[in-house]
Design brief:
Length: 216
């Protein structure tokens, strides 16, 4: 299965990704996670990306496209992949089409998670992430058993630098201007699946599985 997860900041892409990659046994490719890893390791790419991420802006296309193209040539993508947070501009979507053409592959579906703006801000601001294993929690909607500690590995939970109310609002604006045109882009290719993201996490996942089943 070759899939894209589309949706505004805080919609639940990362949360749904963990269920999807388990069920379909495909690698999770999140450009946001790749950038955060580079920031943590202090690489040049991380330093450049951080300037944009901290402001809630998109990292320039030229820093993203080659990174994903390279990742798609790794061995594990032969069984499929789940792209999370890429593409985010029409230019990135065109570049992805070119890359997939070269590889002789096509996309199966684009899962578009829909959530209202007020919910997005509450979700992102209350998000907590494990610094060791990356598991994602929410202080209200999906709390860890012991506050501040990961259920999976006992690691410490932290808040993303770009999860302040102001930066989340900027990210949503950027999504509306630069990323939302992709909804039509993929709808025109008849591969878009719209999913109501304003439901419990398990219910959203169930809807994703049902939609994928009836379209493949
Ligand atoms: P990225 O890391 O991709 O962030 P994002 O798209 O803004 O999305 P988020 O990760 O914030 O949200 P999510 O949809 O994954 O939600 P989650 O599941 O965590 O990108 C970060 C930055 O990197 C960008 O701003 C940009 O600068 C740069 N970047 C990345 N890719 C790029 C690209 N291709 N081009 C250019 N720049 C790029 O859930 C959120 C919270 O809600 C969690 O606490 C969760 O527990 C909770 N939650 C989830 N589902 C539910 C539910 N159903 N009910 C209640 N709560 C829920
Ligand atoms: Mg995410
Ligand atoms: Zn953990």
């Amino acid at each position: 299965m070759r899939l894209i997860l589309l949706g505004p900041p805080g919609a639940g892409k990362g949360t749904q990704a963990s269920g999807i990659i388990n069920k379909y046994d495909i690698p999770h490719i999140s450009t946001g996670d790749i950038f955060r890893k580079n920031i943590k390791e202090g690489t040049d790419l991380g330093k450049k990306a951080k300037e944009y991420m901290d402001k809630g802006l998109l990292v320039p296309d030229e820093l993203v496209v080659d990174l994903v193209a390279d990742r798609l040539t790794e061995d594990d993508t032969k069984k499929g992949f789940l792209l999370d947070g890429f593409p985010r501009t029409v230019a990135q979507a065109n570049a992805l089409d070119d890359e997939l053409n070269k590889l002789g592959w096509s996309l199966d579906n684009v899962i578009n998670i829909i959530v209202s703006k007020d919910d997005l801000i509450e979700r992102a601001v209350g998000r907590r992430i494990c610094k060791d294993c990356g598991a994602t929690y929410h202080i209200k909607f999906n709390p860890s058993t012991i506050p501040g500690k990961c259920d999976v590995c006992d690691g410490e939970l932290y808040q993303r630098d770009d999860d302040t109310k102001e930066t989340v609002a900027k990210r949503i604006e950027v999504y509306e201007n630069q990323t939302s045109p992709l909804i039509e882009y993929y709808d025109d290719k008849n591969i878009l699946l719209n999913i109501d993201g304003a439901q419990d996490i398990d219910k959203v996942f169930n809807d994703v599985v049902v939609a994928l089943r009836s379209n493949n």
